[in-house]
Design goal:
The complex is a heterotetramer. By secondary structure, chain A is mainly α. Chain A contains 5 helices and no strands. Among the domains of chain A are: 53 residues; 28 residues. Chain A is flat. Chain C has a single domain, classed as Up-down Bundle (Four Helix Bundle (Hemerythrin (Met), subunit A)), CATH 1.20.120. Chain D has a domain of 350 residues: Up-down Bundle (Cytochrome C Oxidase, Chain A). In chain D, strands 1-2 form a two-stranded antiparallel sheet. Classes of the chains: A mainly alpha, B alpha+beta, C mainly alpha, D mainly alpha. The interface between A and C is large, with 81 and 91 residues.
Chain lengths: 146, 320, 253, 550
């Protein structure tokens, strides 16, 4: 680029008018509404685990439409697209590695086991007056049995 | 090179520990070598190319071949080390099926061990030598960590979950168990003693709570009296986390000068501190609580063998 | 790069003079275009941080769902699907009006800009009204986060009915405390995520109103509409997050 | 490439302009309300140095307490266990959140980055000032928490300890939350600045390597810190309302907290070390008077370190109860970190080769960095290796390792960079002789303090211990004595740097014969940085003699 380009903000704004436009936005909105209807409809059938996948898949399509058209990323400078993708990419990493841990872990004590743990342990270790491992809701109900 | 290993690592209490030591020393020499590949050139260049006015430096921007070499070689070394470490770790991570199982409950700030036969100890772990022992651990309050330096194993103990660790001790004698995950005020005092003993001694231990007590009751050694045995119990059974020996008030009454004293209870009654009261206080602590103290002491019923109770009574008696 | 001819690709133009008079031009930028692009990068970076901020909650939700699958699915049924769907439609429409407002700003069409911004704010308010009814219903029923959870429905099992296989070791024999752990956690996440989202809606109403006032004053023109554009991006992100919240909470039952 | 141009590197000292950024305006509000990146940088510098002083005092107190097993000094117990726990928590939290994370990017980076780019300011000057006030707010909140008894959670805030212990945990957590946003906005600002405000002629690969380092850091700041924010919010809610996420008593999962925490805090380690490496990449070519060897390799290694830092966090949790699958995967990925770090070290050596090495104080610190960081990095191998990590984690070995990286690495580089840009920032030269003394004491003291701790750790001394076995006493005592020498070195450094401020301005514009754009302006720079928009004509670190113009 040895000779300076000509664009100015005005020029550039005019340039951007070639993209988008009320028609495109209206079509996007209609697509989004239709997809919403589809996802609600799909939820009333039982596909087992498939429901989650379908719901999130449709949500991702909708999100992409919003990002590409409403947020103009389709016509925007690549750097902004990279930043947006980086955000989702690192969120993906976060989810992926956490699931890697969680899915392979199954050694929980049954919930609230400790509410009645009968290990007579020594002293002075819990703050006075605090009963460890009781269920807060149960406490609220005055220990009402279900 | 054994001396160097001993300089850096604690005594090895198992075959696994020796493997870890070998790996540690291997990494030590490898990293030492890599360190020299950085430091020797650095100091040589500093001397060889020291500042001279007017010296013109060459304009070398890069050298792809050299750069590839010093990227690839470390990469290969790293891959090798990873697999080496993985091999050792698999041994640590997977307990053999035939292992004896000891339950550990950690709590601020003591350890409770429960053996397959139901007998329990506090801060005092006995295991038979050359046997696989697996520990199934959980915590009562916050995260703790079961660390046995001599066995080179450690694992966090998490409330609400079980975690496991195992070893196969080969070195007879005593080893330290410490808590390695920060857990508050008493974190650094959360020790237990691991005693590795032969099968006969271990069987005896399960019966009577150990063999050591005999030395204190046969009168042979003037430094080993029943009161000294009591002091050992005081230090290992968790008494010292609430009772002091110097008269200062802790969570429980101090033992200094308590023997033979008339204590006022929280219901206003008075009681003479004698053998019967002390015995009752260990077995059924909430029956007669000294005024000004919370009824927080747990029962030591089944936790203390007869010889230990006798020792403790003698010890309290001696604190006049 | 040692030529005297200057690489100007970061400064396309060098037309500083052309905008020297623009009151919005900041001194450290050479051109208005450079200034606009920079603002946009800044906004996108901010949106990326928002994605990760919400993302943390999504991860936490997913992890806890994996831990309490049964409780979570059951708790889901307490959410009213049509309310979620209605709010989805409202937000989608508000995104549409927002993008039209940006377009109007770009064209310098003040009347339309004000109209569409007002419509966007209206949609946001409708969203909050629906949320208000949702929240107050949850409050009445006691479907509240964590230790405030007090719903006494019959479906909640006692605690000893723990997931099979785990209780073997030390499960207590008789313990009939209702086990609300997973349920309470579900509503913790429900209120945190929709609450944080609602907070973003509130903040959105704030900035939209500010933009509306400035638009009324005629501050924006074809050569300067950066704030409208940036607020638009923010608003779409709020919409986008709801697009994920909706199926995750209202549809998986 | 023809070189028939005016010299870019050998700038003669221009007559010093009367007005510069320091004296252009005066008074409190001219600083408190400034949007000048240089003044904000100076304010940050003062702030982080005060934090460093506080954290340092706490560190000395920790070491002094550990001098003897009885913790007694002149017959009096120095700190009780509870006080000790609070002091080491304060040391960690202050050093990490108030000092090291903002130290290089927000102070030196703020000052130098726009100058190096040939820009008049950062992209968003007002946001920059806002970041500073967020930092200040966070700092004041942390100090308030300190006054109200301080927290004893450790800087890691592990649940369920942190949700059950006494003390102003909520306030401290919110302080860190606010500091996190300060960090996010700084990073955001720098990314936008690097993208859009480079001088004419400066392509991506014409940027000084310092910029690459800061840019990589900024990526982490922007992408990781929000997760810290949400983690701390969850922690506060758990503590205040029992929402049942982290506390197992109410159905939570404490290991989940560790995942959340380390998703930020592992990358945060690179927020700390990358700017340190960035400074070294400036110092070595400048004081070798030779072009950098492997520019692109160093630039790429910065970015790849930033990216890899996001996928290795689980190596903090090998024994913490995460799944075995996760442990193995995280260990394998952890070794990826070694490669770019090694590449940088060898490239710096390649730069020194055949150079013209001048051992001024900044270069002494750069060489210290090479040695100390090499030790810190290589001992990381022991910890990344699964089998040895099991024994070494949560012991003093880890303590020594991360002090070698963060103090031996980052803080050494920070002090080196401070000396390097001191003439530019203040217009004054400091005493070179005292500089050498300070650097020598720094090295002696540091190694005495922390090399010892490797031995303590491998011998089985767990970290965060108030009481320790008698057998460790000699090593602890040695380490404590080392900390005094370290402290003395820093005291001397502070003294001669402050003393230099009393002199009239005497620094030349380019005292080290540097090639990057910040040396093209006066020392100290004028308010708008450059008299004329600088245009990059040669790549950075070009030390070839300038040819005669055609």
């Amino acid at each position: 680029m040895s000779h300076p380009a000509e664009p100015t903000a005005i020029h550039d704004a005019a340039h951007e008018h070639e993209h988008g436009g009320t028609g495109v936005y209206a079509k996007t909105l209609i697509a989004l509404l239709i997809l919403t209807a589809i996802t609600v409809a799909a939820a009333s059938f039982d596909f087992g685990q498939g429901n989650v996948v379908i719901a999130l898949f449709i949500a991702t399509i909708k999100a992409s439409l919003v990002v590409l058209f409403f947020m103009h990323l389709r016509w925007d400078k690549p750097v902004n697209a990279i930043i947006a993708m980086a955000g989702f990419l690192f969120l993906g990493i976060f989810i992926l590695f956490c699931l890697l841990d969680f899915d392979a872990r199954n050694n929980y004590l049954p919930s609230n086991l400790h509410a009645v743990a009968d290990v007579p342990l020594a002293p002075g270790t819990a703050p006075a007056g605090e009963v460890l491992h009781t269920n807060p809701a149960a406490a609220a109900e005055g220990g009402e049995k279900k | 090179m054994e001396w160097l290993t001993r300089l850096m690592m604690p005594p090895a209490g198992s075959e696994y520990a020796k493997e870890i030591d070998f790996m540690y020393m291997g990494l030590f020499w490898l990293c030492g070598f890599l360190f020299l590949t950085i430091v020797i050139p650095a100091f040589y260049f500093i001397w060889r190319y020291r500042h001279r006015p007017g010296r013109v430096t060459p304009h070398v921007t890069h050298n792809t071949a050299v750069e590839i070499v010093w990227t690839i070689i470390p990469l290969l070394i790293c891959v090798a080390i990873f697999f080496w470490g993985l091999k050792g770790w698999m041994e640590y991570a997977v307990a053999p099926g035939d292992a004896m199982e000891v339950q550990i409950t950690a709590k601020k700030w003591l350890w409770q061990f429960e053996y397959p036969d139901g007998s329990r100890t506090i801060n005092d772990l006995h295991v038979p030598v050359n046997k696989n022992v697996k520990f199934v651990m959980t915590s009562e309050d916050v995260i703790h960590d079961f660390f046995v330096p001599d066995m080179r194993v450690k694992h966090d103990i998490i409330p609400g979950r079980y975690t496991e660790v195992w070893f196969n001790p080969t070195a007879l004698g005593k080893h330290v168990i410490t808590c390695a995950e920060y857990c508050g005020k008493g974190h650094s005092d959360m020790h237990a003693v691991l005693t590795v003993e032969n099968d006969a001694d271990f069987a005896k231990f399960l019966e009577t709570g150990g063999t050591e007590w005999e030395d204190y009751f046969n009168g042979k050694d003037p430094h080993k009296t029943p009161a000294d045995w009591g002091r050992v119990q005081y230090e290992t059974k968790g008494c010292n986390s609430c009772h002091t020996l110097d008269g200062t008030k802790s969570k429980g009454p101090s033992w200094k000068g308590i023997w033979g004293k008339m204590e006022t209870l929280n219901n206003g009654q008075k009681v003479l501190v004698d053998e019967a009261y002390v015995r009752e206080s260990m077995m059924n602590p909430s029956a007669k609580v000294v005024n000004g103290f919370e009824p927080i002491m747990p029962s030591f019923q089944g936790l203390l063998k007869e010889n230990q109770i006798k020792g403790l009574i003698a010890f309290i008696q001696s604190l006049q | 790069m040692s030529t005297t001819s200057v690489d100007l690709h970061t400064h396309s133009g060098g037309h500083a003079a052309a905008h020297a008079d623009d009151p919005h031009h900041q001194h450290h930028f050479t051109t208005m275009e450079q200034q606009f692009d920079t603002s946009k990068i800044g906004m996108w970076l901010f949106l990326a941080t928002e994605v990760l901020l919400f993302g943390g909650l999504f991860v936490g939700f997913g992890m806890m769902q994996a831990r309490y699958p049964r409780e979570f699915v059951e708790a889901h049924t307490h959410l009213v699907r049509w309310q979620g769907a209605l709010n989805t439609v409202v937000l989608l429409i508000s995104s549409f009006t927002m993008v039209l407002a940006v377009q109007a700003a770009k064209k310098g069409d003040k009347a339309k800009q004000v109209l569409f911004l007002a419509l966007t704010i209206l949609c946001a308010c409708i969203f909050l009204v629906v949320k208000y009814f949702e929240y107050s219903h949850k409050y009445e029923e006691g479907w509240l986060p964590g230790r405030f959870y007090s719903y006494k429905g019959d479906s909640i099992p006692a605690c000893h009915a723990a997931p099979p296989g785990e209780a073997a070791a030390a499960a207590p024999a008789a313990n009939a405390v209702p086990c609300t752990n997973g349920y309470a956690t579900f509503f913790s996440f429900y209120f945190m995520m929709t609450g944080l989202h609602g907070f973003h809606i509130l903040a959105g109403i704030g900035v939209l109103s500010w933009i509306l006032i400035r638009a009324k004053r005629g501050e924006f023109s074809a050569s300067y509409y950066t704030p409208v554009d940036l607020v638009g991006l923010y608003w779409h992100l709020v919409d986008l997050i709801w697009i994920y919240l909706f199926p995750l909470y209202y549809l998986i039952q | 490439m023809d070189h028939a141009i005016a010299p870019a590197t050998r700038i003669g000292d221009q007559p010093r302009p009367k007005k510069n950024y320091l004296n252009e305006t005066k008074g409190f509000w001219s600083w408190a309300g400034t949007v000048d990146h240089k003044r904000i940088g100076i304010m940050y510098l003062v702030g982080v140095l005060v934090a460093f002083l506080m954290g340092g005092i706490f560190a000395l107190l920790v070491r002094l307490t550990l001098l003897t097993p009885s913790h007694k000094l002149f017959g009096k117990v120095l700190l009780t266990a509870e006080q000790y726990n609070r002091v080491f928590t304060l040391h960690g939290a202050i050093m990490v959140f108030l000092f090291i994370i903002p130290a290089i990017p927000a102070s030196l980076g703020n000052f130098v980055l726009p100058l190096m780019l040939g820009a008049k300011d950062v992209a968003f000057p007002r946001l920059n000032l806002f970041s500073f006030y967020l930092w200040l707010t966070g700092a004041l909140m942390a100090i308030t928490a300190m006054v109200f008894g301080a927290v004893d959670t450790g800087w890691t805030f592990y649940t369920p300890y942190s949700t059950t212990t006494d003390g102003p945990v909520t306030l401290m957590t919110l302080a860190v939350f606010v500091l996190g946003f300060s960090s996010i906005f700084t990073g955001l600002n720098f990314i936008a600045t690097v993208h859009k405000l480079r001088a004419p002629g400066m392509g991506w690969f014409d940027m000084p390597l310092f910029i690459w380092g800061i840019y990589s850091t900024a990526i982490i700041q922007v992408l990781a810190t929000p997760v810290l924010g949400i983690t701390l919010v969850l922690l506060v809610l758990e503590r205040s309302f029992g929402i049942g996420i982290f506390d197992p008593r109410i159905g939570g999962d404490p290991v989940l907290f560790q995942h959340f925490f380390w998703f930020y805090s592992h990358p945060a380690v690179y927020i700390m070390i990358l700017p340190g490496m960035a400074i070294i990449s400036e110092l070595i070519p400048t004081f070798s008077q030779k072009t950098i060897f492997g520019y692109r390799a160093i630039a790429y290694s910065s970015v790849s370190l930033a990216l890899v830092s996001f996928i290795v966090w689980g190596h903090h949790m090998f024994v913490a109860g995460q799944s075995q699958l996760a442990t193995v995967v995280f260990s394998a990925l952890t070794f990826l970190v070694a490669i770019p770090s090694g590449v940088k070290l060898y490239n710096w050596l390649g730069t020194m080769y055949q150079g013209n090495i001048k051992l001024d104080t900044p270069m002494l610190y750069a060489i210290s960095f090479l040695v100390l960081f090499a030790i810190g990095g290589l001992t990381g191998i022991f910890l990344g290796t699964l089998a040895t990590d099991v024994h070494l984690t949560d012991t003093y070995f880890v303590v020594a390792h991360f002090h070698f990286v963060m103090v031996g690495g980052t803080v050494t580089a920070f002090i080196g960079g401070l000396h390097y840009w001191w003439p530019k920032m203040t217009g004054r030269m400091y005493s070179e002789a005292w500089g050498r003394v300070g650097c020598a004491l720094w090295n002696i003291g540091f190694n005495m303090t922390f090399l010892t701790q490797f031995f303590l750790g491998s011998k089985g001394m767990p970290r965060r211990y108030y009481n320790y076995l008698d057998q460790f006493q000699p090593l602890h005592a040695f380490s404590t004595v080392g900390s005094w020498i370290l402290g003395l070195g820093l005291f001397i450094t502070a003294a001669y740097l402050l003393a230099s401020l009393r002199k009239p301005m005497d620094a030349p514009d380019n005292p080290w014969n540097g090639t990057t754009l910040e040396w093209k302006t006066s020392s100290p720079p004028i308010t708008h940085n450059f008299e004329e928009q600088p245009v990059l004509e040669r790549e950075p670190y070009d030390y070839r003699p300038v040819l005669v113009a055609k």
